Amino acid sequence: MDKDKSQYIEQFKLNYEKIVNNTKEGPAQDNELLTQITKSMSFGLLKTNYDIWLEECFLHQDWQKWNNLIFQQMRYQLLPGCDGGYDHCQNTLHILEAFACGDNETMERILPSELGLTKNGYPFYIVISNLLRAMWYRDELLLQKALSAAEKFIGTKKPQWERSGAAFLLALYKEDVEAMGEHLQNLCSGYMRADFSKAMKQLCVPAHGLYCLAQNLLPAEIFQQIKMPEHKNFSQGFAKWRIENPQPILKLYFEYPAPLEILNKIYMAPVAKSIISQPYFHSDNPYHSPQLKKKWFLDEEAMLLAFVENM
Prior knowledge:
This protein is mainly α. The chain contains 17 helices and 2 strands.
């Protein structure tokens, strides 16, 4: 094990041991421990080493390992427990990451068919989540509302990469291959100016996710005509590998050694299914407006409990 991995593991063990020592003893200890560890990861107390791992991927053009890293980081970001203040649109970007690595079932965990339109959240997340939901489930009634909202969003002054993402999905619906290629290129360019870390900007995973989504939804003869982005944050090598491997093996980039094996189990468990609730609906607090009382939010606590129970 090299120096960086050794230091990472040692720090991880220290944080892990604090959680274990603070966990109540008793017959429910296993579930209590899983709950506390998952929640700690969700709050960022136990982090991945994404920046360094991504640099390793760039040094070695092993596309399966690239896929493993995208998969692991996506699963880390989707661990329940930390409230975000939005409804089921909250994890929209992670759906694109899931498509990028071939974990397509995650789409139906984050945006299950029984949940309605997303309404409470960042405008880009709302527009994209409703478009994805309508197209994936072939919901014609929802599709007309989603398309109309997306067209309005594209005409705003929102960041370029966000508008390009929405425009790509509109072009995908219309099967306009020329427009899809153009919007992917603009997404990659605009992504460099977005408020993301330097490491995240090195690889535009959302662009890869949209490209893979197109492969899932389009006839092969149409998909093959989409021009790949020519940008330093889009890997044509990885994209070609994913075309040849539409159902890649899903595994972790970094498997944790003893005594941290439980983390591997947490990462590989099915993604927490979205549960929404109206926590302020019956509130008597005078500072809670009628609008707030009507809003739906992801119920992270309920999702966390269900995630652990189903593990």
